[in-house]
Amino acid sequence: MKYKRQQKVNHKWTDEERAIVRRDYRGTIASADAIANNLGVTRFAVRGQAAKMGILRRRSPPWTRNELKLLEEMIPRYSVGQMAKKLHRSPNAVKVKAVRLKLKFRARDGWYTKKEVCEIVGEDHHKVQKWIDSECLKASWHHDRRPCQAGMAAWHIEASDLRDFIIKHCAELLGRNVDLQQIVWLLTNSVNSERRSE
C-alpha cells in the first residue's frame, strides 16, 4: 500500500488523530501506511507520533490455531520469507515459532531446490550454480528434467549432500543472510539420524 508523501508543514495532531493512531497502529509498516493514507500524513509522521505515545513497538499478536495449522502445512513447501508474507508476520517470528514447535524447515522428504539452498547459505543462484558445476555441491535433475530459466524443472539437492558441503566448505558461507537456524537444524538432525542408526 502506498502512502501519501505530502503533508502540511508543521502538522498539528488532533486528539481524534492520536486516537486513530492508538487504535490502528500495529507496529508494522502496513498499519503505518494505512493510517498515513487515512490522515493525509507520511508514514514517518505516524511512527513519530506512535513513538511519542509510547506505542512504537508492540508485541506480535498471539498465534491463532488457524495460523499454527497453516504454518505446519506450509513449512515443508515454502521459504521463511514466503511464509512470513502469507502469515503477515516477520521472518524472525516465523523462525522462532517453528523452532519452538520443532517443525522441519523446507525439507521435502530430505531434499532441497537450488533456490532454497540459496536462501539457506545466503548466496545468489550464480554462486550456488558454480558449486554445482564444480561438483563441490552434489545435485541432480528433479524428475530427470534439466532445470532451465523457464522454471519447468528444479535442481534436486539431497539434505545429506548439502550437509556434507556445509561441513567441507564452511569457509564459503560468507553471505550476510545465512539461515543459521536452518543450517543448525540440518546438521543436528543429520547427526541425530546417524546416532539412531548406530
Q: What string gives the helices and strands in order?
A: HHHHHHEHHEEHH
Beta-strand fraction estimate: under 5%
Tell me the radius of gyration: 22 Å
Tell me, briefly, the overall form.
Answer: elongated
Question: Span between N and C termini?
Answer: 55 Å
What is the fold-level CATH name, i.e. the topology of the largest domain? Multidrug-efflux Transporter Regulator, Chain: A, Domain 2
CATH class of the largest domain: Mainly Alpha
Structural class: mainly alpha
Strand order of the largest sheet: 1-3-2
CATH hierarchy: architecture of the largest domain: Orthogonal Bundle
- Name the helicity range: 40-55%
How would you characterize the overall build of this protein?
The chain has three domains: 15-52; 65-100; 111-197, Multidrug-efflux Transporter Regulator, Chain: A, Domain 2 (Orthogonal Bundle). The longest helix is centred in the C-terminal third of the chain and has 18 residues, at 180-197. The termini are far apart. By secondary structure, the protein is mostly helical. Helix 2 (29-39) packs across helix 3 (43-52) and helix 5 crosses helix 6. The model is unreliable at 1-7 and 191-198 (pLDDT under 50). It is elongated. 53% of the residues lie in helices and 4% in strands. The chain has a three-stranded antiparallel beta sheet with strand order 1-3-2. It has ten helices and three strands. It has helices spanning 15-24, 29-39, 43-52, 65-74, 80-87, 91-100, 114-121, 125-133, 159-168, 180-197, and strands at residues 111-112, 140-141, 155-158.
